[in-house]
Specification:
single chain, about 50% helix, alpha+beta
Length: about 650
Amino acid sequence: MVAPVSTALAPAPASAPAPVAPRRRTRILALPEARWALAATVAFLLGLALDLTGAPVWAYGPLYAVAYVTGGWEPALEGLRALREKSLDVDLLMIVAALGAAAIGQVLDGALLIVIFATSGALEALATARTADSVRGLLDLAPATATRVTDAGGEETVPTAELALGDVLLIRPGERIGADGRVLDGTSEADEATITGEPLPVLKRPGDEVFAGTLNGAGALRVRVERDPADSVIARIVTLVEEASRTKAPTQLFIERIEQRYAVGIVVATLAVFGVPLAFGAELTDALLRAMTFMIVASPCAVVLATMPPLLSAIANAGRHGVLVKSAVAMERLGEVDLAALDKTGTLTEGAPEVTGVRPLPDSGLDEDGLLALAASAEHPSEHPLARAIVTAARARGLGLAPAEDFTATPGRGVTATVEGCEVSVGRADADSDATVVAVTRDGKPVGTLTLIDRLRPDAPVTAAALTALTGTAPVLLTGDHAGAAARVAGATGLTDVRSGLLPEGKVDAVRALQDRGRKVLFVGDGVNDAPALAAAHSGIAMGRAGSDLALETADAVIVRDELTTVPAVVRLSRAARRLVVQNLVIAGVFITGLVLWDLIGHLPLPLGVAGHEGSTVLVGLNGLRLLRESAWAQDSRG
């Protein structure tokens, strides 16, 4: 039989601060793709400046050559490797088109094309590296070692990876729990915000379940390991994020198929444009000139710019308004969503308790201010979230706090202190309520209660209504909190589809079930527990001010200022960008088709072909930049 646990195992504050996992972020210039892209861009800009100012060729020509080599060697090498695997991609085609442009004197065009693709490759590499960083950072939440109780009653420190089912662990105050298990002895509170999203510490008694990576409070616990460390909730979060990150969206797969066919088609067509006239007696120079003209006018520069400027302009505009959208792909996908799923704690709510009710008993001799001041005086030495909320409420009313003596805190029961000669106790009351109710006693006699709730964000109802108007369906509420709190928030925001008590995999299952029914889900959350759902959803937006590192890295977009109304605004902006993308693709398609037919059927002069090709590129680029205007966001914010 396990011996009872003493709460005096080690000196500890009433509430130890949560350790922060090391932040592992790959620097952009640590990536070779980024360094090569930077070198290509610098060389191109220097060469362009000399070219436009009328410098001799020997001055700017080598700089363009440097841009070709530094920006093009890697996609060229990858393209050659793909050819060896009997595959052809657009990156290699762009290299060939750039070299073809240089071969007929259009060196600047080719260099610009190289720079565009090098920069795109660098951004993709950075996104991949940051995702890997965030997953590694999550693993740091779980402690590397744990204190295991031996059969003889002693203690030993072992790596958590070596724990087995049935092991008994000693969890001291302020320590992180090393494995999923069940409490055998002791009483404490655990901060489970990283797992369930519950903003307040949860009381843990014998028989209660605890999770690896969560933070123990002021009490000591003995915990029996009930799940292999490799299968813990925190480990499953890592697995879910990795799986979702590796999954390619159907749109991406479609683009890859089109990319392959287009590249093969252009190569075959270019060879035909060169070879067929030559076979019928055309001059070699004429045939080569026609083929090079075809390669230039058929190259997808305008198609590339048809997509990127609107999306990048939308990203820049959103960034000015406190929304960080991580890539053009993420911006495009935001406009496709047709259903929103919202986390509760830290998303629709502030994520911290607030005193909303002060009720003195009639025979207590206290009014509201007196009761609140009495409770705040007793709670003042405590670092518990409820205590901080009570003290904050008292100070907001301008109440003076009396000194507290003989302060003691009992995990799960509250605090006791001597205030102005009276013994005052403040602790949770058993109440059938969706809020947290705190009972206050003076010299053993109840004098009143305080009610605390996790405050709803003021803009939550407006945001829910806007998302309903955008998608045609009211958002779904997905939360790890209890049903009463979830129902209160749902009622205040007008939501009817409420799913409470969800662990991270439960949120993922809910998102996937919605998407299996053909919906494209936008998930909005903030915590580590939300990261798998953010990754599994069609698009994910994280609340940035208090969001976990993993949620911020996993999400497609981050709301830096925690303004919920920017969620529907950025969705509208994305839809505007998608409309411009379609417009640009039509413009690019018309120009490319017209120029190609002119070259094949008639005789397209090379200067006119280059002018038409570059003109269409500039046109679609300028059209996309329209979303940089301030009015683009203002218009979308109005709906």
